Amino acid sequence: MPRIVHLDIVAENPDRAMKFYKEAFGWSFDKWKGGSMDYWLFMTGKEGEPGIDGGLAKGDVKKGSTVGTLEVSSLEEYIKKVERSGGKITVPKVAVPGVGWIAYFEDTEGNEFGMLEPDMSAK
Description:
The protein is of the alpha+beta class. The protein has helices at 14-25, 75-84; strands at 4-11, 28-31, 39-43, 54-58, 66-71, 88-96, 100-106, 112-118. It is globular.
């Protein structure tokens, strides 16, 4: 059963947002070196403790500025399941280099989620 394994936050001003989360909750941030986009990985707690970590990206804050990502065994299979269940794919399958394959969808209520199929060889 797919579980939420990652949380993305979009921020108009990443420095301001990171300052907020550091001061308010003690989260730590590290610039992601795996791609060309402005993206920071964050830790919400200690390794091995329950919880979800994620990433913060620079972007326009509109609807759905926080997105949970589900880990799936087969992205193609779950894209079909989403569509059969009444959801729609909003961002088709794309590679996250060295991480895997990701696609985004909206559920029947307009909530956005990501689905990630881990694959270290993705390019």
